[in-house]
Amino acid sequence: MRTVVEVPQWQGSRSPTAPKLVEGAARLAAMVPADAHVRVETGGTLAETAARVRHALPAGDFAVTVGGDCGVELEPVAAALRRYGDRLHVVWFDAHGDLNTPESSPSGAFHGMIVRTLLGEGPPDLVPSPALRPDRLALAGTRALDPAEADYIRLAGIGGPAGVADGALVYVHVDLDVLDGFSSVGYPEPDGLSPDALIAAVAELAARHEVVGLGITEYAPADPADEDLLKWLVPELVRLCAGSGARQIERRAVAAWPASHAEERDGWLLRHTPGVDRKRSNSALPLATSSPSVAAMETFYAERGLPAIVQVSPAEQHAELDAALAARGYAKTGETLVMTADADTVIAAATKNKPAALDGDPATGPTGEPGPAGEPGPAGAGGVERVADRGRWAALFAAVTGAADSMPVVRRIEPETMLLVAADGAGLGLAVMDDGWTGVFCMATHPDRRRRGVAGAVMAELARWSRERGAPRLYLQVEEDNHPARALYEGLGFTTSHHYHYRREDRHE
């Protein structure tokens, strides 16, 4: 889900055009491709408006906050800080530093203090807890600084987006005055970024990081040419940022279920695993930043005597490719949801003893492909063992599922992995941890032990292990038409991140 939060606050600006920010917020909100639209009425004070924004922010959805002045970013960034802590970095695209304190500000306008407030030095009733650390802030396009701001940047060692650590989570703020020649703002500055340069910079961030929130502010409509530009620019910014999470999950999923042969070529990740009859292990995945060559991909698989199979993932980002494959006669199969949840949410849900909410079948079978395998109910099916010794895994898989055909893939997994096994071999699940996320694979319950809460207990212990290892978030795959499984995971707190499916070449031999 994608939600646009419209905050028509102008009281944080002292610009003569500040009242136009109300209209600007409405126009920006209309440009955002979103599943839901929430408009926040401004309060009598900035603190009152911030409290209303806090209440309006969606839990778990990707939120695009539009202003209004830059001060509307207070609660969206504060909410991200509460959720992600020091893993969060903020990249601030703005002509101005917004780093004044109430004492140093020449104008006294809050939109010039918002970043310093997020850093813990602002009006006492607006400072968030926890505050942002200076080494978690990056400035981009900044070119108009007051002396106190310049001193602070130098002393705090604040740099640009290139310094954002690998694996960091990123909140992106865009004040439209970062653009060169854009006049529909209160304080335009020369020598800014071109629209293409802004898009390129955000695309680079989205390719390297998961963007967890986006804010676009300070639009005071004045020039129809600016409006025309925004009708292209805003949806593109949203597409890049909102799609970054799905791309980062897919990157981790590739490592979690590795093919024996994989190479990046001609716009694809080409995967081949002899002896394993699984689509994920023998399919091509389009790369995010390339235009894939279908002919080259077909040649790769033809040389190996295989039909060409494409994992169209994330499906939302590859509609053009999907249409091209359909036109070539590729059949659609394996329509799948990728779902995510916080480990704490899963643990709480699994221990509430609510059978009605947790009935169903797990979404991933022992092969790692989506498919029915068992079902959790309330926790309490007995102890769950953490088995790190991979030498034991084949026998455990065989005991629970009757086969161990996933082992050729499982043996190649490089990220930290743990097998969670219910008492007496009643069920199991495989956890693969990678940089703050844990993938859930191979969930299975012994046929004689279903409807006894086995998978719920396994999932709860998997979530505990993940949280202990510093990976507070989980992902898994479930086939779209597996409604019992979807109900199961929704009951455990999972929500849909994105979709994928496969396209299979129709070979006539």
Protein architecture, described:
There is one protein chain. Mean pLDDT is 91; it is low at 354-361 and 363-382. The two termini are 43 Å apart. It contains 16 helices and 18 strands. An eight-stranded mixed β-sheet has the order 11-18-12-17-16-15-14-13, with helices on both faces. A seven-stranded parallel β-sheet has the order 2-1-3-7-6-4-5, with helices on both faces. The protein is α/β, with parallel strands linked by helices. Helices cover 32% and strands 22% of the residues. The longest helix is centred in the middle third of the chain and has 19 residues, at 224-242. It has helices spanning 20-31, 46-56, 74-84, 114-118, 147-156, 195-208, 224-242, 244-256, 294-302, 319-327, 343-350, 355-358, 393-401, 407-410, 454-468, 483-491; strands at 2-7, 36-39, 62-67, 88-93, 137-140, 169-175, 210-217, 261-265, 268-272, 284-286, 309-312, 331-342, 384-387, 417-422, 427-434, 437-445, 473-479, 495-504.
